[in-house]
Amino acid sequence: MKIGVMDGVLAAPWSELFDEAARLGFDGVELDLRPETYLETEIWSEAGRRALRERSQRSGVEIASVCMDGVAGLMTKQDTHDEGVRALADLRRHCDDLGAGIILFPMIKQADQSEEEVFAVWRDSLRAAFEESSGSRAAVGMESVGRVGRSADQALAVIEAVASPFLGVYYDVGNADYQGFDPISEIEKLGEHIVQIHVKEIGAEMGEGKLDFPAIFATIKSVGYDGYLVLETESGDDPAANALRNRDFVKKLL
Length: 254
Hints:
Radius of gyration: 17 Å
CATH architecture: Alpha-Beta Barrel
Strand order of the largest sheet: 1-2-3-4-5-6-7-8
CATH class: Alpha Beta
Distance between the termini: 8 Å
Shape: globular
CATH topology: TIM Barrel
Order of helices and strands: EHHEHEHEHEHEHHEHEH
Oligomer: single chain
Strand content: 15-25%
Number of domains: 1
Structural class: alpha/beta
Helix content: 40-55%
């Protein structure tokens, strides 16, 4: 397995992110997109993607994944639905160009939407995005976010309904525990459908809270997962020191 880090954890702009990640011993980085600015990022221009590739190659740090953050929520609003579908389709193609194989897709819903309504939105929107970007090889990993999360069973139901080999789960062990789910049993249930993993504990440093990380990591290995473990930990007052501490914690468990 490889260890990655979200850009916000290092609190570094993309122009400095790769070199900083290399200095701290990370294998890859996750780039985070915001709905207000995603079209202005380097990902959305050919010259920008070339610059990102060059920084990645020079530093030896991969682009492990790209997080859609609130951009995924565009799909769930009627007036921005088509933009959200187009954004995911375009991002899949851009990730092919970047050599980034994974897109984090937060399972976001509007407050007035029922679970049945948002399920239909995800199903139909993801189908449309995959059809529009049918030549892409980038996988989309659904992540359970928010106070009221989506269970492994709910994620598997979307996977079955969409029926694309490029749709899976981006599992977040911290979110799962915070939402009242058992990470170990869910990881076992999801198995090969896990495309990438976030590691953190909400409200505590890893290793100092209630999560049994040795058992969680043993379960991750037992289902055959061998991809990235991406830190989504707090940056704090000293982002580099905190990231290094958490990287070392993860590395010791591998």
